[in-house]
Amino acid sequence: MEMEQQQLQQExxxxxxxxxxxxxVKEPPKIRRLDxxxxxxxxxxxxxxxxVSAIKExxxxxxxxxxxxxxxxxxxxxLKLIQVSDDGHGIRHEDLPILCERHTTxxxxxxxxxxxxxxxxxRGEALASMTYVGHVTVTTITxxxxxxxxxxxxxxxxxxxxCAAVKGTQIMIENLFYNMTARRKTLQNSxxxxxxxxxxxxxxxxxxxNVGFSCRKHGASRADVHTVATSSRLDAIRSVYGASVVRxxxxxETSDSDPNSSIFEMDGFISNSSYLAKKITMVLFINNRLVExxxxxxxxxxxxxxxxxxxxxxxxYMSISLPPEHVDVNxxxxxxxxxxxxxxTIIEKIQSVxxxxxxxxxxxxxxxxxxxxxxxxxxxxxxxxxxxDPSASGPKSQKVPVHKMVRTDSSDPAGRxxxxxxxxxxxxxxxxxxxxxxxxxxxxxRNPKETxxxxxxxxxxxxxxxxxxxxxLDIVRQCTYIGMAxxxxxxxxxxxxxxxxxxxxLSKELMYQQVLRRFSHFNAIQLSDPxxxxxxxxxxxxxxxxxxxxxxxxxxxxxxAQMNTALLKQKSExxxxxxxxxxxxxxxxxxxxxxxxxxxxxxxxxxxxVLCLGNDVDWEDEKNCFQAISAALGNxxxxxxxxxxxxxxxxxxxxxxxxxxxxxxxxxxxxxxDEIDHELLSEAETAWAQRDWSIQHVLVPSLRLFFKPxxxxxxxxTFVQVASLEKLYKTFERC
Length: 735
Prior knowledge:
This protein has an 8-stranded mixed β-sheet with strand order 5-4-3-6-2-1-7-8, covered by helices on one side. Helix 12 packs across helix 19. It contains 22 helices and 22 strands. Helix content is 39%, strand content 17%. Strand 20 (582-583) and strand 21 form a beta hairpin. The model is unreliable at 367-397, 409-416, 419-426, 442-451 and 658-672 (pLDDT under 50). With 735 residues, it is of the alpha+beta class. The termini are far apart.
């Protein structure tokens, strides 16, 4: 009996195991129709993304209502209160019951109306969305009627009640996103949302100049934006962005009426070459609709980047008018973007006009004056310089017009901007010795040895020669070095023109060309302590990693370092023979090439250079390989600003802060703000002084002898003309 029970039990367990092996077929989930309130709340979250989205919709409704005055009051960035008041035509009493229902609007009645829509609103979703995520109260006045009503979930909470109000409409939203906890938590920074609101109203104010705008915080007596109706666009910009912006604006306009290409009109204002800002401001209206166009913004930024110093960002206001049927306004939930017919053609023509206008303004750029103490050399009698040279041979020279005279110091052909500033005099004998040795070595390098008979190197050099810009070549060969304008740009004078030249770009390209021309004929820089490649690569990888506290990828970094070290050891023979980069069998870097005599690169950039050799070089193709290695050397040897901040001007605060921070750890706990870390400051001063000396006495002479500027430097901002003596004379003659 017991045997039969055990057998039955085993058979039952076997059947259960067989059932487990059979896959269970799950039925597909059932599709349900969402409740109307859920649908509306989802749609509301898409239309009203943050408080400024609601304000934009309400202001656009006020403009559609023909308002001449719009006032906005905000509390806690708009989360607690948004109040928009206008003096428009108001809302009819019979329309109030359906005012906040979805897809109710007075702007259109059929889909075809979108082809000719001129109003900013058209969907009838904004007010409805606000009632699903906030408490909305509407107060409006029309002829003989004055009512107030509150809404929730798209419907009136009560019948309209008579109340006191001024002409127009006032819409108040309280407790925005009260029923969307996650959204409300992400918008806790009320200051950030209020600044977006101020920016929004500022943009509306400079376009709709026939409307007065006001924006203030709830309870504040003073408005952060306050404009009145005016007939001048510049007056509107002045009242919002300040006189300093208006002073540097240029009128710009263009149009096209060719049906085969594009039909549009554009007018506006753009900043000139004297305008300085750290952030771009672009205000764009298309058919009176405030929108964004990333393609147009990029196109204009490219023009400014190629014409002005990198640190300068423009101010741009543009108003573009097109036939309504050429604009698709229904492409974005918040109507932030539109789609244009022939958009690429329109952008190309606007970009061309901006570039022409900007380049014409670049001839008369202005600079702020800085007072400097005169040096003893300024007391020299300058009248002798104006006398003609009696020893000059040949016939009597013609008198040079005053507006074509080139004013440079003949006693120092390299330029002496530093002579006008008081500084500690360097060791005269030391400087003369170094300068003589540099000039001697430069002369020796005037005719460098022949390069290796490699077709790839000859092709790369031929590419350099064929791509040379003749105009820039004349500037480089005959320019006079004046001095450093800032950490990156040097002032060069060529004839009667003054240029800003990007020292980093120039030195990078010069080093690249010199590597190719001196291929396999380098002298060597011997490192006193050979540097292990794995450690260098790890340093470079950690510098690229923004999250320095995360150690999860350390194993990956170590594997990358090992792989790159093995690769470079494998290629060490070629690197040593052709580029004088010596890597021993232990994986230590012990020797680097001399690219320019009397110049040693910044050794703090060695890790980045080694990582570049391991990651960016195509070792399979000979030409690409040599080009990548030469480019890596060019970037490594380029005269970048030192890593320590410039001690002059604001950079000195860096060295004060270091002492202030460390002094807190002392026993007395005192913080001495006026003390300076003199050791670190001395190191920085030495590094910057060495760089300035190298630029003046090594880089500039080498540029004159060897450099062939590529055509790209004419448009990428490496050379920027900042003044023309002849045009300045014309300017002053009109004064």
